[in-house]
Amino acid sequence: MNNTMNHKELIHSDFQIKEVEAVVRRDAFTTIHVYVPPYETNILRNLFGRENVTVFERPTKTTITPEQEYDRLCAKYGHEVVAKVFGEDDGDRLMGIVEGLMKEGQLPAQENVLEGTLEQEPSETKGAKKR
Fold first, then answer.
1. Please, where are the H alpha helices in 21-91?
2. 33: which strand partners?
3. What's the CA gap between 128 and 105, in Å, rounded?
4. For the CA atoms of the chain, what is the radius of gyration?
5. For residue range 85-108, what is the model confidence (pLDDT) as tens digits?
6. Is-contact 85 43, C-beta < 8 A?
């Protein structure tokens, strides 16, 4: 008998994870600010170009339903875009990422250690790029 849990059977309720602010430059005259889970920035970068998406950390959390996250992203951006970023695996890779964020949220002591490490290292998510 296989003791590994199917990713899609992981959890059937809402869960709080950190959210980030993504500043997206859509064109020369349009800049938008969106608050999304960190993994959603990969889709934004794919759509608008890495150089047009700047990510900032936020102290707030957002609520997600892990088993519905792949479907939510497909509804928002289209299956082709989500599959290009996360693979044609019906959300298994994305669920692995969500699991990691959920575990991070369950271990507040470890989360504080990770935040301390991030503060010491320069990070793209700490501020806007200079042009």
1. 40-48, 69-77, 79-86
2. 23
3. 26
4. 16
5. 998 888 889 999 988 888 876 644
6. yes
